[in-house]
């Protein structure tokens, strides 16, 4: 079937005079879970200047401007004998230091515009304008704020691995628009699950944060493709990886940056039931209730979780690499020893990721460190309320910075490398803290030595 959906940006074409604005309709062809972006031709006038205006989520102009962070379109019939200027007006983050767009001639292979082609312009009301001036070699081009990751790639992963005995998937429910929410399970089928520790990973809570999907794909590919190698550092007879590849499928479908079509930020839809911390209140979004119910069902069936990762993308400066958010650097009476232990465990996990990644992976303080975790409404606060430091639950943030394997701006290979590092580190951590002497081992870790993996954010200074 085919659906016509309003796309997430408004294009204004200018040459000598301004041509009337038009909203671009996006045609998405349904193909299993996947949605392929097939845009109508936007321009046949060989214009020198094209203005791209990102749309507010659900056209709600009252939202915070920093949430306005997604655009992706195709442009046809542009000149190739001279530079074309793309004016991006009204982005939630400043260009160049935070945002360098990407382009593609086939909608598959993407690359950044050179930094030298990106210029910051004046903005207003918390929004930013920037321009890209570039001479294309093809008159038909795709441009996007960062690397697109369509949900069809998740379907491709399912197709790739569905016949492998160590890979299982199922639909755990349907989104508010009726799209399937998938759960992947990766483990050795010939060993009893009751003897294994479990790792939880979910991704793409915010539609525009496509980096998280590339990291997750790298994680899955590494686990699956290294199963049968002699030097595989992960023994899947000892661990189960449970993975939700896309949390906010509806937000992706309608082209939002952050929210569902109903205006919900699924990152903050983890309000616990007043009488039972294991349950979510009825007021939460459908998707998070499905996920929480799934985790509870797995626990009731015997799953023993030790790690829970919440993968995100991040707008960050060029010198800020991928990191883990902590809420426990500052000791609070309500957190007690468990909070101090979890902070130390998060630093330890960061050191393990750094060991397998090409660049350091650090820990940064969350935005509300003085607010007890029990009073917050993230997935990590759900894990904390129920398991304290027994589950190392944390948000992983992945910027498009220049902290990369090549010292150039990060690309998909860096995302895949981080996914590999997270996969191995999660396994190592699980085995370490599955040891009956784990409390003793934790006490032996030197906190001062681990603090080299802690980096202060600008706002903390």
The CATH superfamily of the largest domain turns out to be Zn peptidases
Number of helices: 9
Report the structural category: alpha+beta
The name CATH uses for the topology of the largest domain is Aminopeptidase
Number of domains: 2
Radius of gyration of CA atoms, rounded to a whole number = 22 Å
Largest sheet: 8 strands, mixed
Low-confidence stretches: 1-45
Number of strands: 21
Supply the key terms.
461 residues; alpha+beta; Immunoglobulin-like; 2 domains; eight-stranded mixed beta sheet
Provide a quick synopsis of the model:
By secondary structure, the chain is α+β, with helices and mostly antiparallel strands. The chain contains nine helices and 21 strands.
Secondary-structure map:
Layout: E1 2-14, E2 22-31, E3 34-39, E4 49-54, E5 72-75, E6 84-91, E7 102-104, E8 111-112, E9 118-121, E10 128-134, E11 141-144, H1 152-161, E12 167-174, E13 180-186, E14 197-203, H2 211-225, E15 239-244, H3 249-253, E16 272-273, E17 276-280, H4 286-300, E18 305-314, E19 323-326, H5 336-356, E20 362-365, H6 379-387, E21 392-399, H7 412-433, H8 438-444, H9 447-450
Helix pairs in contact: 2-7, 5-7
Question: Could you walk me through the main structural features you see in this protein, from its secondary elements to its overall organization?
Answer:
The chain is α+β, with helices and mostly antiparallel strands and 461 residues long. It folds into two domains: 2-144, Immunoglobulin-like (Sandwich), CATH 2.60.40; 152-460, Aminopeptidase, CATH 3.40.630. The protein contains nine helices and 21 strands. The strands form four sheets. It has an eight-stranded mixed sheet with strand order 12-13-15-14-18-21-19-20, sandwiched between helices. A seven-stranded mixed sheet has the order 3-2-1-4-6-10-9. A hairpin with a 5-residue loop joins strand 12 (167-174) and strand 13. It is globular and about 70 Å long. The model is unreliable at 1-45 (pLDDT under 50).
């Amino acid at each position: 079937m085919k659906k016509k959906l309003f796309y997430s940006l408004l294009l204004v074409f200018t040459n000598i005079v301004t041509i009337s604005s038009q909203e671009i309709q996006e045609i998405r062809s349904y193909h299993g879970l996947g949605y392929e972006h097939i845009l109508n031709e936007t321009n046949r006038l060989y214009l020198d200047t094209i203005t791209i205006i990102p749309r507010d989520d659900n056209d709600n102009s009252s939202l915070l401007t920093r949430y306005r962070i997604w655009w992706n379109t195709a442009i046809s019939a542009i000149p190739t004998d001279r530079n074309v200027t793309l004016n991006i007006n009204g982005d939630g983050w400043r260009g160049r230091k935070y945002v360098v767009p990407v382009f593609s001639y086939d909608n598959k292979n993407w690359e950044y515009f050179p930094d030298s082609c990106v210029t910051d312009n004046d903005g207003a009301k918390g929004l930013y304008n920037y321009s890209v001036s570039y001479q294309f070699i093809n008159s038909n081009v795709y441009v996007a704020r960062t690397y697109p990751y369509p949900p069809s790639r998740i379907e491709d992963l399912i197709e790739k691995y569905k016949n492998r005995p160590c890979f299982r998937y199922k639909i755990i429910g349907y989104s508010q628009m009726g799209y399937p929410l998938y759960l992947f399970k990766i483990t050795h089928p010939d060993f009893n699950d009751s003897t294994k520790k479990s790792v939880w990973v979910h991704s793409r809570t915010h539609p525009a944060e496509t980096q998280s999907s590339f990291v997750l794909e790298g994680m899955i590919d590494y686990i699956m493709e290294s199963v049968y190698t002699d030097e595989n550092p992960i023994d899947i007879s000892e661990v189960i990886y449970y993975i939700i590849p896309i949390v906010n499928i509806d937000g992706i479908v309608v082209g939002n940056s952050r929210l569902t079509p109903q205006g919900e930020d699924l990152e903050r839809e983890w309000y616990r039931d007043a009488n039972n911390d294991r349950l979510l209140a009825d007021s939460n979004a459908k998707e998070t209730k499905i996920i929480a119910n799934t985790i509870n069902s797995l626990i009731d069936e015997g799953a023993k979780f030790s790690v829970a990762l919440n993968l995100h993308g991040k707008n960050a400066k060029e010198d800020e690499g991928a990191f883990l958010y902590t809420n426990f650097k500052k000791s609070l009476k309500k957190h007690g020893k468990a909070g101090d232990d979890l902070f130390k465990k998060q630093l330890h996990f960061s050191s393990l990721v750094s060991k397998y990644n090409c660049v350091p992976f650090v820990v940064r303080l969350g935005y509300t460190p003085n607010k007890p975790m029990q009073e917050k409404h993230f997935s990590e606060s759900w894990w904390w309320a129920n398991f304290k430091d027994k589950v190392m639950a944390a948000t992983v943030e992945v910027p498009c910075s220049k902290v990369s394997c090549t010292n150039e701006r990060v690309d998909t290979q860096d995302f895949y490398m981080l996914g590999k590092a997270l996969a191995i580190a999660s396994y190592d951590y699980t085995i370490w803290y599955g040891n009956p002497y784990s409390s003793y081992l934790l006490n032996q870790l030197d906190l001062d030595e681990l603090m080299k993996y802690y980096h202060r954010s600008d706002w903390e200074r």
